[in-house]
Write a structure and sequence with these properties.
CATH topology: Arc Repressor Mutant, subunit A
CATH superfamily: Winged helix-like DNA-binding domain superfamily/Winged helix DNA-binding domain
Shape: elongated
Helix content: 55-70%
CATH architecture: Orthogonal Bundle
CATH class: Mainly Alpha
Largest sheet: 3 strands, antiparallel
Radius of gyration: 16 Å
Strand content: 5-15%
């Protein structure tokens, strides 16, 4: 199965979940997604998702000076972002449980 298509469908949820644990800057969010096992995530996709979630009001941002290079733009969850995370989590759990049921039924007859 092509996991890049799956990642596209759940990237908002995954990014919100990562940022909910701890604020982070773009590449930090990419790194944490990859450490969690989402290896097929592209940096450009994550940066675009962060910008879109910020513009929609789900994320807040602030700049932190860095001694190792350019300043970093950190993202954090807003109240609206927490609500979006809760809604998307519920939707994901319902959907994934349905797919699991379908797979189990297919395996039972195989």
């Amino acid at each position: 199965m092509e996991t890049t298509q799956l990642v596209k469908g759940v990237l908002d949820l995954a990014v919100l979940a990562v940022v909910a644990r701890e604020d982070g800057y773009g590449y930090d969010v990419v790194r944490r997604l990859r450490v969690a096992g989402i290896d097929d995530v592209g940096e450009a996709s994550v940066y675009g998702t962060l910008r879109r979630l910020f513009q929609s009001g789900a994320l807040t941002s602030y700049v932190v000076p860095s001694e190792e290079g350019p300043h970093r733009k950190y993202y954090g969850l807003t109240r609206e972002g927490k609500a979006v995370l809760e809604r998307q989590t519920k939707t994901w759990r319902t959907f994934s449980a349905t797919v699991e049921d379908l797979i189990a039924a297919a395996e039972a007859v195989a």
